[in-house]
């Protein structure tokens, strides 16, 4: 006991309960850390079991043939999870993980009872991924709760979970989840290999894991998908991907990932395919507007006025007559101001953040136009660009294109449409060279896989999506049998073979 107290610095949340056990009156101590255990479990299923529930005659009979350590482990405890801690490091890790330790006088081993608990956040609606139609629950900071939420949806014995600890000081719990009879074993082994070589003191969340295991870090694009929705994780698992759970964060990583996954919202699969396809097409259109909108305006005004209709060109020239800056500087000022307002709205308290960002944009835009610093057309272009950037379902990929927008604007300011074309080729070539655990980032577009395009730019009906993505090299590529393979009984009832 003294050694445990000295190791954790005589912490005030260390609780020790001593009592005598058995006919020999052995000294037994129950040790746990207050705040990270379920006190009701400790009192009812550990302490009560050792002190009250054990019958004295039965205890005397058992002590004649068994050691007190074996009696407590096999007969006295009513808690579900009981492990043996045989080394000092394992004992301390169990204590710090929320286990209750049972120390017995004269024994070199201790018992660790699973009593993890304490105050945790309840399951609530997703905050970063808005739910329109679908399950209104999101992951929490508890890795046990998150794993259980997926298991409730995917009831199959082939759903495997492997756990490990990362961080020399923090010992953060990590869980890998995959469907054994679907996933590619090489992908699982590669993910485990990259996780095991991580050598860091502390892991604070899934964002650090993402940066340490991705194929290429010198890129603005995210190559590992993250989500806080259990239904999205289940859908990815059934496609043959691997989910990485990190204790202390509600965001689960999905690997391997492709570029087009970041434009697929969970609501697409709850809507009719025609509706989902149109909405997805609008997302890609909004992506092009948010990425090239200001650049096209800069190139047209500065270098390619002949491409603008005469009446519109005269109107734009009249608006820019009193503006002292070139179009590139004008767009740069407005884009930077818009990004500042957007970031301020996110960081400020929720009650006033949205109002500040909206009012700030209106006031600054109107004042800049009246002062002759910015043209009205530029305000319209920047506003449409900003609104279009919000249509992307994934915040990570939207942030990447927000950064690339400035790079394309610089190219347009110096070379016009030629600069836009050149930088676009470089960006596209870079994206085609990316990999996510060996899977091409731009698949199924590059390399082109014909069968995988049923869920890329458009969403085909479920009845036509017979196979899982071919680029993942899965064990089981069949999602469902085609109608031609229906049995006679299924054909008579109208049901297909799954």
Task: Name the features.
single chain; 498 residues; alpha+beta; 3 domains; five-stranded antiparallel sheet; 17 helices; 12 strands; 46% helix; disordered C terminus
State the order of secondary-structure elements, H for helix, E for strand: HEEHHHEHEEHEEHHEHEEHHHHHHHEEH
| Average pLDDT reading | 85
Number of strands: 12
Low-confidence stretches: 487-498
Span between termini: 59 Å
| Portion in strands | 5-15%
Summed up, the helix count is 17
Question: Roughly what percent helix?
Answer: 40-55%
Most strands sheet = 5 strands, antiparallel
Overall tally of structural domains: 3
Structural summary, described in words:
With 498 residues, this protein is an alpha+beta fold. The protein has three domains: 2-114, no CATH class; 143-257, no CATH class; 284-440, no CATH class. 46% of the residues lie in helices and 13% in strands. The strands form three sheets. A five-stranded antiparallel beta sheet has the order 1-2-4-5-3, with helices on both faces. A five-stranded antiparallel beta sheet has the order 6-7-9-10-8, with helices on both faces. Strands 11-12 form a two-stranded antiparallel ribbon. The longest helix is centred in the middle third of the chain and has 30 residues, at 273-302. The protein starts with a helix and ends in a 5-residue tail after the last helix. Residues 487-498 have low confidence and may be disordered.
């Amino acid at each position: 006991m003294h050694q445990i107290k000295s190791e954790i610095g005589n912490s005030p949340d260390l609780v020790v309960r001593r009592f005598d056990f058995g006919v020999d009156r052995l000294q037994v101590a129950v040790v746990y850390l207050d705040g990270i255990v379920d006190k009701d479990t400790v009192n009812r299923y550990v302490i009560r079991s050792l002190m009250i529930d054990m019958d004295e005659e039965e205890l005397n009979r058992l002590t004649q043939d068994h050691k007190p350590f074996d009696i407590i482990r096999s007969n006295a405890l009513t808690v579900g999870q009981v492990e043996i801690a045989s080394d000092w490091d394992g004992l301390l890790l169990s204590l710090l993980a929320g286990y209750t330790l049972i120390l017995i006088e004269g024994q070199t081993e201790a018992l660790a009872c699973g009593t993890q608990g304490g105050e945790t956040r309840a399951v609530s609606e997703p905050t970063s991924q808005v739910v329109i139609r679908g399950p209104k629950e999101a992951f929490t900071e508890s890795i046990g709760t998150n794993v259980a939420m997926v298991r409730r949806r995917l009831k199959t014995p082939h759903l495997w979970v492997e756990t490990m600890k990362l961080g020399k000081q923090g010992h953060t719990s990590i869980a890998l989840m995959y469907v054994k009879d679907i996933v590619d074993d090489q992908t699982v082994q590669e993910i485990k290999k990259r996780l095991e070589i991580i050598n860091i003191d502390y892991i604070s969340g899934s964002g650090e894991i993402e940066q340490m295991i991705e194929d290429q870090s010198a890129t603005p694009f995210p190559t590992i998908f993250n989500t806080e929705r259990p239904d999205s994780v289940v859908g990815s698992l059934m496609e043959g991907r691997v989910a990485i759970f990190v204790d202390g964060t509600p965001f689960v990583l999905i690997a391997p990932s492709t570029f087009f996954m970041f434009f697929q919202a969970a609501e697409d699969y709850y809507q009719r395919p025609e509706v989902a396809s149109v909405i997805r097409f609008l997302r890609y259109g909004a992506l092009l507007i948010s990425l090239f909108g200001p650049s096209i305006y800069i190139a047209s005004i500065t270098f390619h006025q002949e491409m603008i209709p005469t009446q519109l060109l005269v109107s734009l020239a009249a608006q820019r007559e009193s503006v002292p800056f070139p179009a590139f500087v004008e767009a740069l000022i407005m884009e930077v101001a818009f990004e500042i307002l957007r970031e301020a709205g996110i960081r400020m308290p929720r009650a006033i953040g949205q109002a500040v960002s909206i009012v700030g944009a209106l006031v600054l835009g109107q004042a800049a136009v009246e002062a002759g610093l910015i043209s009205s057309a530029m305000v319209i272009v920047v506003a449409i660009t900003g609104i279009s950037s919000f249509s992307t379902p994934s915040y990570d990929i939207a942030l990447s294109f927000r950064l690339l927008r400035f790079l394309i604007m610089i190219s347009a300011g110096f070379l016009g449409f030629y600069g836009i074309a050149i930088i676009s080729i470089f960006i596209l070539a870079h994206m085609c060279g990316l990999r996510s655990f060996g899977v091409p980032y731009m698949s199924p577009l590059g390399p082109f896989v014909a069968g995988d395009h049923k869920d890329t730019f458009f969403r085909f009906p479920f009845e036509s999506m017979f196979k899982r993505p071919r680029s993942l090299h899965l064990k089981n590529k069949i999602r469902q049998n085609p109608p031609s393979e229906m049995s006679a009984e299924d054909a008579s009832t109208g049901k297909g073979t799954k």
